[in-house]
Amino acid sequence: MTTSIIGLLDSDELATTLANSTGWHKIPLNLHRFPDGEWRIRLLDKPQKNVALVCSLDHPNDKIVALILVCGLLRDMGVEHITLVTPYLAYMRQDVAFNPGEGVSARYFANLLSAHVDKLVTIDPHLHRIAELEEVYTIPCVTLHAAPLLGAWVRDHLPNVALIGPDGESEQWVSEVAGIASAPYAIMEKKRFGDQDVRIEVPDLSAWKGRTILLVDDMISTGRTLIVVAEQLRAQGFTDIRALCVHALHDDDAAARMKEAGISAVLSCNTVVHPSNAVDIADFLLQGMT
Ligand code: R5P
């Protein structure tokens, strides 16, 4: 089926790359923000019946209204099938009511997106207590895992490395990355009591002296998880500590705090547009779209 492709906000460049690889026609989208924050949206060409809408959902509260308005416009223009290509899918960490009266935002957000698009393609959504997206999304979902990409990157760039996963959830990707890179790895146990209150005890890792230590996680937000680990590694005498993540959600302040804690470089996939981007996901993403 012929497909049109549209990039929303900072995903426009990725949409252009995907359009060049597939030959799909990219439709320019004009977004104007009124002084009160509302959007005016305008498509500058007529879409095919089948549309791939590319929009990474970091900063979701800013982006979701524009996304829903564009879906409305596409339906008005006769589009029958919208695939949302969202390299980073938001709201997956609030997957259970942690306290009485708390909302399960992962499910509410899934209901919202499922009502507007027909299919979803994403990379490493935070699957923890929700085992697969279809538990909360009512549309077909393609879930890609970036571990092979990360593994190849580590193998090609860091010859004498040992990997650390900061919590139990990270074992799924850290073990795979370590396998591809033929590197040893260890998984920590994490307890989180608040945004900035994270407790992890790093065991004695002196057997790894002389190696680059690479902290690997699916996402970095406040940076606190990796800071807590890095501080203890530094206290153990490690001098070359770096970090690699799929989704870089952290701001400049968090980047500065991680540097101060001894993490000399933070690298990420370009699922979220970020200065730390080092691993390109465009070709990989195509596997889930075609
Ligand atoms: C948590 O379950 C995730 O895998 C990450 O470890 C976490 O979201 C990182 O957040 P922060 O950078 O705020 O510690």
Compact description:
With 290 residues, the chain is an alpha/beta fold.
Beta content comes to 25-35%
Order of helices and strands: EHEEEEHEHEEHEHEEEEHEHEEH
Largest sheet: 6 strands, parallel
Query: What is the helix tally?
Result: 8
Task: Please state the structural category.
Answer: alpha/beta
Strand order of the main beta sheet, please? 2-1-5-6-7-8
Bound molecules: ribose-5-phosphate
Query: Unreliable segments (pLDDT under 50, ≥5 consecutive)?
Result: none
The N- to C-terminal Cα distance equals 10 Å
Net shape: globular
Estimated radius of gyration: 20 Å
Let me know the average pLDDT: 97
Chain oligomer state? single chain
Number of strands: 16
Helix content: 25-40%
Walk me through what this model shows.
- With 290 residues, the protein is α/β, with parallel strands linked by helices.
- Helices cover 31% and strands 27% of the residues.
- The protein is built from eight helices and 16 strands.
- It has helices spanning 12-22, 60-76, 105-114, 147-157, 171-181, 224-235, 252-260, 282-289; strands at residues 3-7, 25-26, 29-33, 39-43, 50-54, 81-86, 119-123, 141-144, 161-165, 185-187, 190-192, 198-200, 212-220, 241-248, 263-269, 277-279.
- The protein has a six-stranded parallel β-sheet with strand order 2-1-5-6-7-8, with helices on one face. A six-stranded parallel β-sheet has the order 10-9-13-14-15-16, with helices on both faces. The chain has a two-stranded antiparallel ribbon with strand order 3-4.
- Strand 3 (29-33) and strand 4 (39-43) form a beta hairpin.
- The longest helix has 17 residues, at 60-76.
- The N and C termini lie close together (10 Å).
- The mean pLDDT is 97.
